[in-house]
Design brief:
seven-stranded mixed β-sheet; 400 residues; alpha/beta; 18% strand; Aspartate Aminotransferase, domain 2
Length: 400
């Protein structure tokens, strides 16, 4: 019989029980979801919530979608994990379906686990490719919390001293003159840019700016990295938000909506990059369960025409919000929306959650609410939000 030891211990001096606690780095709502279906959540007290945030844009096909649950369950009953030292045909199936739906059949897929890891691999691959070091990113951008990803993120408060590097150049958003000047002064390895900034407040890159990036990268042997971690996977109404500009990036990074809640991420790379053994690697990336989840997401996006639904529902929501009281600006495309108010947004978000049981998201722009629902959300759910938002705004504006 195998003995089991507990993790509890006692302070011999105080005879007081010591229990491991969580490292407190997240401000938490006092809500415990225990069940979810479609665009709805239920907490442990039986309260029902409308989810317009999807856990940072992760829920792409709705909570507990039947096809998704079935694919993961069937896969787990066969094999859940083995490393990339063996054949995993699911990876090839995922690559084929991703290539077809994204329109990049000639690209190649490397799988990993998170958006930050995807961006790290993209920048590393870019540097392998051209031997350069300088990475250009942009004000209000967010690319992750790991080594170089956090260095190119415009938030000094989350950059530890060990992460700081002269290789990160953070430029003004949508400023073509500053971009050209940076290329003239530096040996640029890569430009990494979100098609629509997520954490920054859903600021949209202009088509002209993305085309300028493409041209400058071509002229200077630099790599165009399209950070599609939040704005990709159909959220904008196109597969990648960068697609609106009509040019292709060299590397697309993706995560969040890719697995609908299961941790999976990846990069797709253009034919200009040549793979060699040992260049990139991962233990968990591309495991059987992750691939099953990602394949299920692509199946549902295709079968239910979710790119078109994101476009149509986004247009309905954006147009409806623009005429609401207290709204300064509505930014975004599809179902990635930044709702900037004339007043700080914190109180409005709290009222939506506490009084109307609706989840929305914050941003580094304190007046902006982020709206990131599942791509299969319908008008009925969005109308519930619009009516609640109007009531909250009228209440706050009358009070002020």
């Amino acid at each position: 019989m195998v003995g089991v030891t507990t993790c509890n211990s006692y302070d011999s001096n105080k005879a007081k029980k010591i229990t491991m606690k969580l490292f407190d780095v997240y401000p938490l709502f006092n809500i415990e979801p225990v069940k979810a279906q479609g665009s709805w959540l239920w907490d442990n007290d039986g309260n029902k919530y409308l989810d317009l945030y999807g856990g940072h844009a992760v829920i792409s096909i709705g909570h507990s979608h039947t096809h998704y649950v079935r694919k993961i369950t069937e896969q787990l009953n066969r094999i859940g994990f083995y490393s990339n030292s063996v054949q995993i045909p699911l990876q090839k199936e995922l690559a084929e379906k991703l290539g077809a739906l994204s329109g990049h059949d000639d690209y190649e897929l490397f799988l990993c686990n998170s958006g930050a890891e995807a961006n790290e691999n993209a920048m590393k691959l870019a540097s392998f490719h051209n031997g350069k070091k300088k990475i250009i990113s942009f004000k209000n951008g967010f690319h992750g919390r790991t080594s170089l990803a956090v260095a190119v993120t415009d938030n000094p408060s989350i950059v530890a001293p060990v992460n700081a590097t002269d290789n990160a150049l953070i430029l003004p958003w949508n400023d073509e003159v500053a971009l050209e000047a940076a290329f003239q002064k530096n040996e640029v390895c890569a430009v990494i840019i979100e098609g629509m900034q997520g954490v920054g407040g859903v600021y949209v890159a202009t088509d002209s700016f993305l085309k300028k990036i493409r041209t400058l990268c071509d002229d200077h042997n630099a790599v165009y990295i399209a950070d599609s971690v939040q704005c990709g996977y159909g959220r904008s109404g196109k597969f990648f938000a960068h697609d609106f500009a009509g040019v292709s990036a060299d590397i697309y990074t993706m995560a969040k909506g890719m697995g609908n809640g299961f941790p999976v991420a990846g990069i797709i790379v253009s034919p200009k990059f040549k793979a060699k053994h040992g260049m990139l690697g991962t233990t968990f990336g591309g495991n059987h369960l992750a691939c099953a989840a990602a394949i299920a997401v692509l199946d549902v996006i295709k079968a239910e025409n979710l790119l078109q639904n994101a476009e149509l529902m986004g247009e309905f929501l954006i147009n409806s919000l623009r005429v609401m009281p207290g709204v300064k600006q509505v930014r975004g495309k599809g179902l990635m929306i930044g709702l900037e108010l004339e007043i700080p947004a914190g109180e409005i978000r709290d009222m939506l959650l506490k009084e109307h049981k609706i989840f929305t998201g914050s941003s580094s722009n304190k007046n902006t609410i982020r709206i990131l629902p599942a791509l299969n959300i319908g008008k009925e759910e969005l109308t519930i939000f619009l009516e609640a938002f109007a009531k909250v705004m009228n209440k706050v504006l009358v009070k002020s």
